[in-house]
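Something for you to look into today, if you have time. Could you write out one complete protein record for me, on any chain you like? Leave the record below and I will have a look.
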Amino acid sequence: MAASVDLGSLLTDPFTLRTVFSVLAGALTGLVVVRLTFFLHNQRDLFRALRAVRAELLYDSDALERLARLLRDDMRRQHVDLPIEVPAGTTIEVRYVLSLPGALSTAAFDQLRQSGRLFDLPEPTRRALFDLYETVERINRLRGHREALQYNSVGNVHLVVDAAGLDLEPGETATEAELPAGVRDQLEALRRLRRATQGINASILRLAASISPPERVETLGLAEFAAADDEREPPTIEEAVAMLDSIEASSFWARFV
């Protein structure tokens, strides 16, 4: 006959109680360790993603400044839009070669958004990043259109008009109407291109001014493209970086990951 088990004695036996409490404590400790490890892993991934976005924004800030300077200078160049006159004994060169810098980067933000970690951020920061990167993407689309327009037409132009081939008397000047038909066609096509690119340039510069701090707007000569403060929607790049820095600075766990 099987021996009967006295449940009451087991529950009051010190060794049994120590064993039960030890098992329960071990299980609880293991659960806490697993949850803490999982939490720290998530925090590590989040702050790595935020640091990548921060680095991307700083890169984009420099790239945007280069692009804005180039397009601002391009808008100041009006020589092609003026009548061309060629004095006797001279050679006129018309150049229009504009190499745009690369597109602004959105890879880090795209990865943060696709991972779903964007929704771990406070709503104001999340909204600010959405608005800022929407503007960045609009700049990239316009930049791509600007580049395609230039390279699919007469964009890279180096046109040379040599007065020696125009049968001019000493002291005479040839007007544009007296230039060869092929040269006149090239100049007209170039003017059409410049009129089209002027509009795209202005649109890009307005967007660049909207995400640049006032001191940079002043430095780059973008004041005429800047909207009033009460009309601005996206944050500046510097404001978004400050938001990300604030999140990391206020997190106890950021220093460990």
Summary: The mean pLDDT is 80. The chain is about 60% helix and 5% strand.
